[in-house]
Amino acid sequence: MLFGVFLTLGVAMLSVGLRTFQNSYSQKAGALGILVASFLAIFFITGSWVLGLVAAVSWLFLPWLEILTRIRALRLPKEKQLRPKSPPSSDSFPALTEITRGIESEGFVHVGDTGWDWEDYRQFFRLFYKEEDRAQAAICLNEQHDLSFYYLRISSRAKGGTIWTTWNYPLSYGLKVTPQFRINRQRPDQSFGQLYQSHREFLRRNGVNADAIDMLDEERIETEIENDLRDQIAHNIAKGVLKQTAAGDVKYSWRGMVYLWCQFLVDLVRL
Q1: Strand 163-167 with 147-157, pairing
Q2: Which is nearest to 155 in space by CA: 128, 115, 176, 119?
Q3: Cβ–Cβ contacts within 10 Å for residue 223, how many?
Q4: For a 10 Å CB count at each end of the chain, is N or C smaller?
Q5: Please, which residues have CB within 8 angstroms of residue 30's CB and are 6 or more apart in sequence?
Q6: How far is residue 262's CA from residue 59's CA, in Å, rounded to a whole number?
Q7: Structural domain that includes position 56
Q8: Which helix (DSSP H) or strand (DSSP E) does residue 209 occupy?
Q9: Which of 81, 44, 38 is nearest to 60 (CA)?
Q10: Do 83 and 48 belong to one domain?
């Protein structure tokens, strides 16, 4: 019995330690170790490997608690219209000023703050543009209830319609992106400078030259983002991830909730 206790504790402590390293292989090993520790704990308590396996696999179904409560009740507008928006307070987004300086140090110019509000869901975008590279960047803050997170995004819009995008979105992305997007996803802990270098390499790797990128101004940047949001909602309705309600807004379908869960599983493997 003591052997089982010490073995389980050892695996659990090792797993937690591995998760603290900023290395994808360590992160994956740590996640796997948590599943193993759960199996060992139940196995040594009950003596049943079947119950141990159920305990380990149950971690994979944990997201359904949020999906069936918060996500199922979520409603979104079919049309997202951006409006000029004041930046959040330093209490709610203390890193905004520092991140802005980091983006501007890479040669980007702050062109405006915008966003949209819907019931208790809010999005804030601080927009930047670098004329030399014809690249747009954004600090994106999402807020809903007690959940708040931000991510950084860099986009280059090709004249043919393809949108080459690098971002560090920290969660499982809840909607399908439209076909014109090409996503270069990076880890959430990367600085803007690292994202920018990754984005430039992303363009080089795909043979995208500056001449192939469309030039934008402040007004068009906001218009294009608004169009992207509208197209994304329409695309996900067409794919069955979202469905329209009688009130005219949209919500996740059952197919969409399964899609969210699959996204979580993909991120678990990717981490």
Answers
A1: antiparallel
A2: 128
A3: 13
A4: N
A5: 15, 16, 17, 18, 19, 20, 21
A6: 13
A7: 2-61
A8: none
A9: 38
A10: no
Q: Which residues of the chain have pLDDT under 50?
A: none
138 falls within a domain:
yes
125 and 26 in a single domain? The answer is no
Rounded to two decimals, the pTM is 0.81
Whether residues 123 and 223 share a domain: the answer is yes
CA distance 25 to 9: 21
Provide the pLDDT for residue 181. 94
Type of residue found at 54:
V
Distance of CA 97 to the CA centre of its chain: 21
Residue 190 pLDDT: 87
pLDDT given for residue 23 in this prediction: 62
Question: 89 with 140, same domain?
Answer: yes
Residue 268 domain flag: no
Give the pLDDT confidence score for residue 114 in this predicted structure.
92
The two tokens of residue 67 are 């999906």
Rounded CA separation 241/236 (Å): 5
DSSP structure string for 31-62: HHHHHHHHHHHHHHHH--HHHHHHHHHHGGGT
Please, what sign has the CA dihedral across residues 48, 53, 56, 57?
A: negative
Q: Please give the single-letter amino acid code of residue 104.
A: E
Q: Which two tokens stand for residue 11?
A: 């695996």
Number of domains, the chain? 2
Residues 31 and 88 in one domain: no
Q: What distance in Å separates the CA atoms of residue 187 and residue 170, rounded to the nearest whole number?
A: 7
Residue-level pLDDT at 217: 79
Q: Which strand ranges, in their side-by-side order, compose the sheet holding 83-84?
A: 83-84, 109-118, 121-130, 135-144, 147-157, 163-167, 181-185
Q: Dihedral sign, CA of 17, 21, 26, 28? A: positive
